[in-house]
């Protein structure tokens, strides 16, 4: 298995993707390209058909997906502004690769989503999504305005528990042009997905936050509103917990307090990656309740989290270190990185932070883009995140 990455900052879209493909092709060393992912900055999106023709002419990928990106990542660099073109290419002998265009299906007699259909690129029409045929991992790039990503994730969590779904929401578009690429098509909506089988795809999710204070049990809640924590009004209990923090963590909590929710409670103790981190979006001091950005239930364990550049750096490197221990002496061949457009220079004092962290951990070809939302699993279930870096490490099947 070989993975290669090509990057260009040329302002001409055809030249940019020709350069990126040439770089990837050289690194593949004559190996066949079984899968390519392309990420294009807003300056290039109006020329989507030319971009795809160039990629097929230069690289001849058997499968291709991609999207518009507010910033691109490749070759250890993060290009947050200006023109950027990135091509990630993989030769995966023996692997099973299938590309789909996912579309929403309206419910009968209503406007609410009824389901998801998968349209094969070489066929007519669309068929109801068959979750059982999606291989061992799924890479998803979705349009944030036309596709309900969370609906897809809920369905896959129910129908294919344990299937890792990794990806992100397209973060750039151009007037009159589609935001997604699949095969030779430029698509104006929905999502594109690539299912993978016959190889190892290891997900890494770094939510960029550090746990602080004590663990607490939800003792009364409805929907996304928590009424009681540890048998006290939620606002009162949170106030006590914040008062117990050191001055630095209190300052970070004042800037924006987060709540981590344990998803998989079948563990003797909970570590940083066991919490689904969500913002506290409201508080009613009179009622003593707090609202969080996720549905909760009585009995779940929660813990306060805070976020800054230092905690985000520590979290990402910890996640990568754990995966390196799992892989042992067999490093991955390459990686895909889906990082929030609120990270990068907005969060870190050093350039190319997330890309450099992957390079430091594994020294492998990696590429991706800055997303409007990131997809990845926590506690064995897939979620849509914010301010997160989700990574797919690809390796030979073990």
Overview of this structure, please?
By secondary structure, this protein is an alpha+beta fold. The protein has 2 domains: 1-208 and 308-398, no CATH class; 210-306, Elongation Factor Tu (Ef-tu), domain 3 (Beta Barrel). 22% of the residues lie in helices and 40% in strands. The chain has an 8-stranded mixed β-sheet with strand order 9-8-7-14-10-11-25-26, with helices on one face. A 6-stranded mixed β-sheet has the order 1-6-2-3-12-13. A hairpin with a 2-residue loop joins strand 25 (374-378) and strand 26 (381-385). Helix 6 (309-327) runs parallel beside helix 7. 47% of the residues are buried.
Low-confidence stretches: none
- Overall mean confidence score, pLDDT: 93
Number of domains: 2
How much helix, percentage-wise, in residues? 10-25%
What would the principal axes of the Cα set say about the shape?
globular
Helix and strand content put the structural class at alpha+beta
The gyration radius over C-alpha positions equals 21 Å
Percent of residues in beta strands? 35-45%
Strand order of the largest sheet: 9-8-7-14-10-11-25-26
What distance separates the N and C termini?
A: 13 Å
Number of helical regions: 7
Number of distinct beta strands: 27
The main sheet comes to:
8 strands, mixed
